[in-house]
Amino acid sequence: MLNTLKSVVFVLAATLFIHDSAFAVDEYNTSTGVTTAGAPLGLHGSDPVALITLDAVAEGDAAYTVVHDGVAYYFASKRSADTFSKDPAHYLPQYGAFCAYAVAKGKKFDGDPQFADIRNGKLYLFVNAAIFAEYMKNPGEIIARAEKMWPKIQHKAVGSL
User: Fold this and answer.
1) Residue 34 and residue 115: Cα distance in Å, rounded?
2) Using an 8 Å Cβ cutoff, are 52 and 123 in contact?
3) How many alpha carbons fall within 13 Å on the CB side of residue 116?
4) pTM, two decimal places
5) Which residues lie below 8 Å from residue 109, measured CB to CB, with a gap of 6+?
6) In sequence order, what are the residues at sequence separation of 6 or more whose Cβ sits closer than 8 angstroms to the Cβ of residue 154?
7) Cα(157)–Cα(16) distance, rounded to whole angstroms?
8) Distance between CA atoms of 83 and 95, rounded to whole angstroms?
9) pLDDT tens-digit map of 18-67
10) Which of 161, 57, 160 is nearest to 104 (CA)?
C-alpha cells in the first residue's frame, strides 16, 4: 500500500513537472495551431531572410520549412532556408517576434512583418502602422526601453502582462 501511494505521488509530481515544461509561456509570437512540421508557425509565414536582406516581406512556402527552437519558419526558397539555418540568430526578429513598442511598455502584442524596421542589423516588428509611426519618432529610445523590459517579461505568459 505504501509503495502504491509513493508511486501515485511520484506520477502526480512528474505530471505537474511535465505540464509546466510542456506548456512553456509565450516566449515566441506564433500563429495558432501547428504546421506540418509539428511546430507553431512564426513570423506569419513570412521569410525572415528576405526581411533582413531585402527589407521586403516575402511569403514563405511550407516546402521550405526550418524549425528553430520549437517554431516553424517558412522561406521563399531553399537558398533562403539554408541561409537561415547557418545563422538563425542573425535573422530572427527581436523579442520573440512580439511588437517592440509593446515590449518597451511591458506587453506582448503581435509583431507583424508588414511593419518592420532593421536597426544595426536587427529586425524589429510592430503591431500596426500607427504604432510603427510612434516608434519612428524615437526608435533609439523605444529599443533601449524594450531591451531593459524584455528580460523581465520574456518568460511570462501573454495573458499575465
Assistant:
1) 24
2) yes
3) 28
4) 0.82
5) 98, 99, 101, 102, 127
6) 27, 95, 96
7) 18
8) 21
9) 333 333 457 898 887 788 888 999 999 999 999 999 989 999 999 999 99
10) 161
